[in-house]
Amino acid sequence: QVQLVESGGGLVQAGGSLRLSCAASGRTFSNYFMAWFRQAPGKEREFVSAISWRAVSTYYADSVKGRFTISRDNNANTGYLQMNSLKPEDTAVYYCAAAINIVQNTMSRSRSYDNWGQGTQVTVSS
Description:
With 126 residues, this protein is an all-beta fold. The protein is built from no helices and 11 strands. The strands form 2 sheets. Strands 2, 4, 5, 6, 9, 10 and 11 form a 7-stranded mixed sheet that branches. Strands 1-3-8-7 form a 4-stranded antiparallel sheet, with no helix packed on it. β4 (33-39) and β5 form a beta hairpin. The mean pLDDT is 97.
């Protein structure tokens, strides 16, 4: 299993930006397809974005498309989520997730991932 640790969350005003990081250890990071999910209080965990093993392909939920950018640095064993133009509805705990094998039409399902970080809180004030 790969260990994942998120960082970079915090409190920001609407319209502001944050950059989340997901540091991986224990296994070769480039072997893992990586994604970001988020969970707001009282809501189910939802897909935010994903990036393929060599960063060839990226995927976004409609709610964040054009505002968030996912990336990864396999040499640094770290994934990133740049979040711009943040809205109060982006407030949630953000989790990074990873899996070795992913079928494209299942990448937005949390059950497709067997490695998870502990989460980092993002709060956007209005």
